[in-house]
Prior knowledge:
By secondary structure, this protein is α/β, with parallel strands linked by helices. The protein folds into two domains: about 25-95, Histidine-containing Protein, Chain: A; about 105-165, Histidine-containing Protein, Chain: A (2-Layer Sandwich), CATH 3.30.1340. About 45% of the residues lie in helices and about 30% in strands. It is built from five helices and six strands. Helix 3 links the parallel strand 2 (about 55-60) and strand 3. Helix 2 packs across helix 3.
Amino acid sequence: xxxxxxxxxxxxxxxxxxxxxxxxxxxxxxxxxxxxxxxxxxxxxxxxxxxxxxxxxxxxxxxxxxxxxxxxxxxxxxxxxxxxxxxxxxxxxxxxxxxxxxxxxxxxxxxxxxxxxxxxxxxxxxxxxxxxxxxxxxxxxxxxxxxxxxxxxxxxxxxxxxxxxxx
Length: 167
């Protein structure tokens, strides 16, 4: 009986030692650092590692980039990665606003200015080389509305230096 208890204790101890000796690899922190280094320059991607499980989060611009990042994480982690949870979100591309076209045709711009200026009878406007020049008197509160309206006609410039402000 004593022999079998001693044998059992020795076998159990050797089994524990052999399992702990088999456990090799990187700590979660080291694995996370290794993957982050492989993903250098991808500021919108976050990496977390929990017990060898890699969690990718953040945003990317395409499905291809999402898969590429997962592949890089697998390769960088090699045999230390147990699994990858890819929570990366593919964001919609940012639309580039259309360029503002400046009106160079004085006749067309002048017609638009004349139509707009009907609401401002105390001021006059002229157009030359795409620049709208305004003269006359106007209340301070109406100057902003006048300027915004004229800017919306897309001239090269709106010159309000000839305006006298009424108090």
